[in-house]
Amino acid sequence: MLDVKVIKAPAPGTMQIIRQRSGARWGEDFRPAAVGLVQGKLIEMVVASDIAEKTAGVVVTDVRGSCPQNMVMLAIAGETAEVMECLRKIQDGKDASHDCR
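Above: the chain sequence. Below: its structure as tokens.
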């Protein structure tokens, strides 16, 4: 099961936290309209990342835990409508290219 949240108009401090926990992959000047956060099992987060990148023009990064190898969350950033659409598809889990049932 995935936990999913969205932050609309993230504050500079929030973006700084994400930058620090993701290895500063997003520059100081990157100010997305929204950031979607996805947390779950590693396998689910990798599939969620793929769905997001195939759905819309968003930027996805992993957010690490206390150990650099420990991915605990994904951050999906972009325009609000695009982030919301990605999160909807991730929650629906109805992406045929990832269904092995």
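The helical segments are 12-21, 42-55, 80-92.
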